[in-house]
Amino acid sequence: MGHFPVALQMAVMQLDSDWLLEWINIIGMVLGALFMAFVIAAFVIVFFIPMLERAEWIESEDEQDAIQILREQYARGKIDEEEFERRESFLRNHKR
Question: How many domains does the chain have?
């Protein structure tokens, strides 16, 4: 670049540095977006999925409690065998 005017040399250098800065900005934005996606995914894995598993466990526990109460009512003679089987079938087939 020795035989070009200084102003032209500086303009070319400016264009080169602008191009490089643009790519650095683009790469920075992409890395920032990836980092945010990682943070959101980590939050979901750490907090949301265990809450869903707990909810399923509680639902299962509620179903077992209802069946246990039904068995107790049958054992005490409050309901007959036909009513017990009908209600038990209903509880098992109509899970929340």
Answer: 1
Is the torsion defined by CA of 78, 68, 63, 91 positive or negative? negative
DSSP-assigned letter for residue 79:
S
pLDDT of 59 > 70? The answer is no
User: Dmax over Cα atoms in the chain, in whole Å?
Assistant: 109
Q: What is the pTM of this model?
A: 0.40
Taking each helix axis as running N to C, give the angle between helix 81-93 and helix 49-75, from 0 to 180 degrees, rounded to the nearest 10: 170
Q: Do residues 67 and 88 touch, judged by C-beta distance below 8 A?
A: yes
Whether residue 59 lies inside any domain: the answer is yes
Residue 1 lies in a domain: no
| Cβ–Cβ < 8 Å for 70, 91 | yes
Given a cut of 90, whether residue 38 has pLDDT beyond it is: yes
Number of residues that make up the chain:
96
CA 86/CA 96 separation, integer angstroms? 18
- Tell me which amino acid residue 48 is: F
